[in-house]
Amino acid sequence: MTEPAPGYSKINWLYEMYYGFRPNQPKFLPKDYPDLTGKAAIVTGSNTGIGASVVQLLYEKNCDVISVVRTEEKGLAAREKTLKEIPNSKGSITVVGGCDFLDLNNVRPTAHKVTEILKGRPLNIIIHNAGLMSPVNTGTSVQGYEAMFSTNVMGPQLLQHFLDPIFLKKDDPLKRIVWVSSCAHLMGFKEYGINWENPTFEGVPIKQRPRNMTLYGQTKAANLLQSHAWALKHSEAVQKIGAVSVGCFPGNLSTDLTRDWSFINMFAPYFLGTALQGAYSELYAALSPDLTTKDHGAYVVPYGEVHNPREDITAAYKNGSDLKFYQMVEELISKYF
Ligand SMILES: NC(=O)c1ccc[n+]([C@@H]2O[C@H](COP(=O)([O-])OP(=O)(O)OC[C@H]3O[C@@H](n4cnc5c(N)ncnc54)[C@H](OP(=O)(O)O)[C@@H]3O)[C@@H](O)[C@H]2O)c1
């Protein structure tokens, strides 16, 4: 069991929610990014939305990007568009299809393909960007897990498990992992955002599941816990290689995330930011020299600054509840190792 979570300030809660809709302008922009010639990055869910913009910005800086997607054709179409728009890059974009986190058996073959593409060269950046925000609470994965938990939490941690041996090497000074979270972490469960008894809701009848945004909020609180716990779990290697693992709320943005939310879509362009602005947030998390090994678990907010997450998440970083959560997920996913 974890320590009971402390309460959190409703005023901070409201402020952080409000900030998501009225963020400061980005300060860390492509002109500030380093040249990424010879560097390799993995971006999941990069056929559309924020992920597609992140790939473009990395590729523009000559990075070799591995675009991990579930539908290969969509990934190839996004790649074509980027190659046309940015004809002079010295980098590359390689698409790895078939990585649908709604079936965890897809993750091992995905990691295998990534390993083959890298052929032993350094892996510098991993951005766990793929995500699902379902308008209903009925989704269930092939293995019987709540769909958003399988997609946003179990899939990324399983992929990271396979990437750890490739990533955790002292082969290059640039080593970053970004776990894409959200201000929706504020809407997660009371105890560190997590429904500790059964976070996957396996075996729970749909009618007894909480509302969709509580389930989504749980997954985005989980991403923050993962960002800190991963660094704790690997603390020795992480210190040795100078790797940095952070969470990132990219912004409230008009993307395909709300493709099934007809009401939001009607008004989205009027009150939401763009995928490109979200990419600025994720690339602040991936590239800014402001973030160091002292910043594991940092909550990067739009469009590239650091705030405090909900108070109980900060407490989890200190009392080890983040690591307990990480280990709990690890037990669940170990069947797919
Ligand atoms: N947009 C926002 O306002 C916002 C706010 C806070 C946080 N975020 C986070 O930002 C990240 C990117 O979101 P976005 O706004 O760019 O959304 P998006 O345009 O819908 O892109 C999401 C990506 O994730 C992929 N994906 C969805 N379900 C998947 C699954 N089961 N397995 C593997 N990949 C899957 C999608 O693939 P398909 O195209 O094949 O479905 C797509 O490539 C997500 O983690 C999201 O939670 C977004």
From TrEMBL:
Superkingdom classification of source: Eukaryota
Pfam families per UniProt: adh_short
Keyword Hydrolase tagged: no
Region forming the signal peptide: none
Any one GO molecular-function label of the UniProt entry: oxidoreductase activity
Spans traversing the lipid bilayer: none
Keyword Protein biosynthesis: no
InterPro entries, alphabetized: NAD(P)-bd_dom_sf, SDR_fam
Keyword list, A-Z: NADP, Oxidoreductase
Family assignment from sequence similarity: Belongs to the short-chain dehydrogenases/reductases (SDR) family.
Alphabetical list of PANTHER family matching this protein: RETINOL DEHYDROGENASE, SHORT-CHAIN DEHYDROGENASE-RELATED
Protein's recorded name: NAD(P)-binding protein
Organism: Zygosaccharomyces mellis
